[in-house]
Amino acid sequence: MSPRTFAALDLVWPARPEADTLDLAMAWLDGWSPVAVEETDRGIRAYFSTASERDRAVAAIAAPGAPGIDAAVVVSPVDVADEGWAERSQAALTAVRAGRLIVAPPWARPADPAADEVVIVIQPSMGFGTGHHPSTRLCLRILQELRLESASVLDAGTGSGVLAIAAAVLGSRRVIGIDADEDALGSARENIDLNAVAGRVSVRAVDLADAPHTLAERFDVVTANLTGASLVRLREPLAACLAPRGTLIASGFQDDERDAVVNAFAPLRLETERREDGWLGIGFTSIPTTSTGW
């Protein structure tokens, strides 16, 4: 059997760049959702969940304005064999906070959290959602602003399952996480077990575009930490999964995509808008009508 490979992107400078240049480039790359980034002899290697995610970063680098990345930098998409790089590159991850939620890898779980803190343990993997990306933290913060007791929740594009697990620990009676990526679903199941919420959280292999037909139900809350383009493209199925007076939490996009996303969901009412490092999280509420408006 051929070893599994992962989509990566090499950035190589003519000579080893200064630390400030590397920091700028790595901070900018973080905006394109790599699952891990590591330094190399003369640059950076960034790993992505899919080749399409890597291609988005390549296209962005080709446009002017990427800080620290000038025309002298050689940009090369590569496929990297799985030789434990994910474990090595993510071994230094620490716990992060979003409101009263603490998201931690197993080795950094707080031994004595405060009484009002809730700890979620996430095993880093190829599934998104360790809590280190601003879009994940934005979703977690908005979730905490809702009354989730007895609510049903759909996590669309669940990845590692962090948002689904958060909904459960915050009081949701039933949570379903859906994803088309079997590796992500495996990661989510592992994390569901780590957090002992299997009685309230389940995951299913479902294409988001088919979710209304496949699931055949509506939810009090829908979380969608995707990309701006995906949110616009999937606006109808996402809205169709939302119960009357339900809340849709959308994130994974930046300031320059804000208007496109808000306009796409115009039949819903914009209730909440949060920002972090140029990333947005928005909460919409469905308004009971006889028509969706689409």
Question: What is the structure about, briefly put?
Answer:
With 294 residues, the protein is an alpha/beta fold.
Give keywords.
seven-stranded mixed beta sheet; 294 residues; 10 helices; 29% helix; globular; four-stranded antiparallel beta sheet; 2 domains; alpha/beta; Alpha-Beta Plaits; Rossmann fold
Could you tell me the mean pLDDT? 88
User: Based on DSSP secondary structure assignment, what is the total number of beta strands?
Assistant: 14
User: What is the first-to-last residue Cα distance?
Assistant: 47 Å
Total of DSSP H or I helical runs spanning 4+ residues: 10
What's the helical proportion of residues?
25-40%
Uncertain regions: pLDDT < 50 for 5+ in a row?
none
Radius of gyration using CA atoms only: 19 Å
State the CATH topology of the largest domain: Rossmann fold
C-alpha geometry: globular
Total individual domains = 2
Reading the helices and strands in chain order gives: EHEEHEHEEEHEHEHEHEHHEHEE
Beta percentage is: 25-35%
| Strand-pairing-aware structural class | alpha/beta
Tell me, what is the CATH class of the largest domain?
A: Alpha Beta
Sheet with the most strands, sense and barrel status: 7 strands, mixed
CATH superfamily heading of the largest domain: Vaccinia Virus protein VP39
Question: What CATH architecture label of the largest domain applies?
Answer: 3-Layer(aba) Sandwich
Characterization of the model:
The protein is of the alpha/beta class. The protein has two domains: 5-89, Alpha-Beta Plaits, CATH 3.30.70.330; 93-285, Rossmann fold (3-Layer(aba) Sandwich). It contains ten helices and 14 strands. The strands form three sheets. It has a seven-stranded mixed beta sheet, sandwiched between helices. A four-stranded antiparallel beta sheet has the order 2-3-1-4. A three-stranded mixed beta sheet has the order 5-6-7. Helix 5 links the parallel strand 8 and strand 9 (174-179). The termini are far apart. The relative contact order is 0.11.
